[in-house]
Amino acid sequence: MREFPIDLRGVVVDGLPYSAWQILEHMRIAQRSMLDYALQHLIDTTVRSPKQLRWPRDYWVRQQTPRGNESCEHSVRSILQDRTDFEALINKATDDGLVTPSGPRNRKTLLRLALQIADHNSYHIGQLVIIRRLLGSWKR
Predict the structure, then answer these.
(1) Is 89:43 a contact under the CB 8 Å cutoff?
(2) CB 34: neighbour CB atoms within 10 A?
(3) Domains of the chain, each with CATH number or no CATH
């Protein structure tokens, strides 16, 4: 987000539902939710999630404009830290620990969550690139 112009981060391009800021926050919230799920259901079942999020309401912020550059920087730092924390879980896991399902309906694994995070974030990073291009701020 460092190169995404501050004054454009809250702009909703005509025809699109979200601003770049809302997408960035969605990435942060969703990735944190997946990390919390892994910690609670796959790593330590005594850990309780701070809050059960409801889809889609709790995964998207309504505020389309960040409260200054620090809000965006905080979101980026949080995304990077949570990714690092998730990578640590992967690195500590045994082969069986990566693929053993647990949690509600016994269907998620640590590997599945890692792939879901990678897929989810890459999709939204692509959206951020497109928004930047549509706003005319992409360097050729």
Answers:
(1) yes
(2) 19
(3) 6-134 (1.20.120)
- What band does 131 get if pLDDT is binned at 50, 70 and 90? very high
Report the predicted TM-score, pTM, of the whole model to 2 decimal places. Answer: 0.92
In tens, the pLDDT along 94-127 reads 999 999 988 777 889 999 999 999 999 999 999 9
Q: What is the DSSP letter of 109?
A: -
Number of Cβ within 10 Å of residue 86's Cβ equals 20
> 55: closest CA among 36, 35, 75, 30?
30
Ramachandran region of residue 103, left (φ > 0), alpha (ψ -120 to 50) or beta? left
Instruction: Give the whole-number percent of the chain exceeding pLDDT 90.
Output: 77
Identify which of 4, 11, 55 has the alpha carbon closest to the alpha carbon of residue 30: 55
Task: Please state, as a whole number, how many other Cβ atoms lie within 10 Å of the Cβ of residue 56.
Answer: 8
Q: Which residue has the tokens 């701070």?
A: 50
